[in-house]
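In these records, each integer encodes one residue's backbone shape. Here is one protein:

___
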Amino acid sequence: MTDRSDVATALAAFSAWPIDRPDLKRSAVGIVLVEEPAGPAFLLTRRASTLRRHTGQWALPGGRTDPGEGPGETARRELFEELGLGLDDSAEIGVLDDYATRSGYVITPVVLWAGPVGELTPNPDEVGEVHRVPLELIDVEPRFLTIPESDAPVIQLPLFDRFVHAPTGAVLHQFREVVLHGRATRVAHLEQPVFAWR
């Protein structure tokens, strides 16, 4: 059983690697852990089909950092804007490695403990679906592909009889490695599929 103290202990033992890329825009996502009757789960969305970019893709709640915001503030603000779930800074229990995307962002993943959560209110302009995913569903080995466009391997994380790609797939794989297994596995080198480069 993984509880808040287990997650906090694992993250405290992990040294997250930042990425210093002033040429890229800063952003943050939340790995939002909720308490379910069967155990902890995390919130995963599918982006609304009406969005201009990355429509229908699996995503963690998050977005671009506003001036003066830290990663935790960004993740919590975006969580509220996307799903109507408001958390204060006491929910923040750690961060994972930064990940630089092909679309021009550096993402900081922030782990948030939300505890028991009632009905969510997804913003239909941003979110097509929201799922509460049990942690055991990401405790799987990913698949790695080679593509002619890059020397780096493309990560595919099996979930719901489909695959979640980077950046979300890479972030969730690192969470699994660090929090569920205590391994300081790095993922910043893992590639996104070409369809996500835009």
